[in-house]
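Quarterly update from the structural biology core.
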Amino acid sequence: MKQPITGYHRDEEGHWVAELACGHNQHVRHDPPWVNRPWVTTPEGRARMLGHELQCRKCAEGAAADR
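Predicted structure, tokenized:
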């Protein structure tokens, strides 16, 4: 199920985590060659992606909200 990004925070290791409208969190790393998300590396890129929908595996699994 796709959910829009509503915000961001960093985890305890300093990696960016997207906060989704459904209440779940999802890491949004830029870690080539596996994950190509250069937008996560700048404040402008992250701001531009607010509202962008990501596939939420936790929703598909029926998991409780993270927050």
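The mean pLDDT is 95.
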